[in-house]
Protein 1
Amino acid sequence: MSAARRAAPRVAQPTTWSRAAANHGHPLPREGGWGVGIFAAVLLGLTFAAAPAAALEFRSVGEAAAVMFDAPSQKARPLFIVARGTPVEAVVVLEGWIKVRDAAGDLAWMEKKSLAEKRMLIVTARMAEVRAQAEAGAALVFEAEKDVLLELVEPGPLGWARVRHRDGQSGFVRVNQVWGL
């Protein structure tokens, strides 16, 4: 057995102490004392630490194809290959590697250099309707089938995104018909 395996990590044992003992015999923090300030700072810190991320980071595959691995290493097991333009959600960044989630929810690692800043969306509905304006009754510009890639031109009004097809047609699509926002 190696020395590293024999040496068990030390775990701090919980200690019991009362508020009164911690505050020199006073049951509550004294006015103007550090107790209230420290308590407030810890509470505030925990509030922000538990808050979810405000914005998701999406990117797209920039190379002709990118290999997805089960770990952040070229020696790791390759899982699958994704095509250029496929949108992915960045989950973890680690020195040249990035753990991503695809539209199906699968997690895998890929080299960071394989990604582009260009934002692409993938159609998740059976058929997405791209309209001239961000309104349900607006003229239909084109329809895109499931798994078609659309370039994100800009986020539109609430519930819509302005997109462009690789053929040049553009318009607005409902955000519940695509993934990558």
Note: The first helix runs from residue 3 to 6.
Protein 2
Amino acid sequence: MNYILKHVLFALFTCGLAGYFFFKASSMPRSASLFPQIVAGLIFLLSAAMVFKAAHDVRGSGGEDSGAPAGKIHVARVVVFVALTAAYIFLIPRIGYFVVTPLFMLVMYTFLRALGIFKALVISVGFSVFIYFLFIWFLKLPIPMGLLEALFER
């Protein structure tokens, strides 16, 4: 499949997903719908930018796909990534956000070979602490606690 077509198809997929969330958010109260609609708008813009960059890459190479960045998609890694993400979403209400999220981040950083274990651990725990203070302590919003429910009862 040619380079630009891949990007256009992915952009259509992301725009469709963003459109779904944009219109789903419009049924919420105005204060709650603003953030999802802004994110959906950003997804539209970034999808368009991705297509324009792909066209620019091909045009810069003389109009041939051969000049565009080539990379083999590792289907097994994509499947594992999607499965881990689905497991994360499934486990949040059962085990709790503050147990699952640091584990998910640590596993993903390691799986994607993005960071070493120590850096991944520090970022995962630091992010969870930040989320705790922002959403639980400062904004007083509920987050699924799961196994930690008894520990954080008020």
Note: The mean pLDDT is 82.
Protein 3
Amino acid sequence: MRTRALPIMTAAWLGIAMVPLGACKGDVSAVHAEKDAKGKTEIKVDREKVDQNLKQAQKDLDTAGQQLQKGVKQGAQEVGGALQRGAQKVQAEVGPVAREVLNDAGITARVKAKLIADPEVAAVRIDVDTVNGRVTLNGKVSTADQKAEAEKLARHTDGVVDVVNLIQVAGQAPPPPPAPKLR
């Protein structure tokens, strides 16, 4: 979504820049140059008109500054609103992904904590990965009971949707890779 702040600010600036030109009505020149009969140029300066023109220019400048300030404030409000809407859109789109990643990290941490707390499982040699609540166990253990216990602990952890147990028991062939799940 494009913001309208730039066109509004440009229009306001052009309008302000034109104010002093529009205020010029009739002969406001405080300086007159004339040639006399001999062709000599005489320059006359009317100090009162110079002062009057300076006062009018100051008024016009003050008015223009106020208009510019209003335009800048409005533009800043519009830009701020656009930034807020953009941040909300990013939060809506990225927030769920970030929550899922943080949720998976929490599941992994809980499974690892359970494995470490169980003296029957060689937790140091077991790797835990979690994606969308699906926990994958990898590594090597000494017995089939340790492999089964690790899987049981993982399955009984909050947030776990499924467990893929790829743990290898020492002296046995590695387990086959899991078949892809269709949803």
Note: Residues 89 and 168 are 45 Å apart (CA to CA).
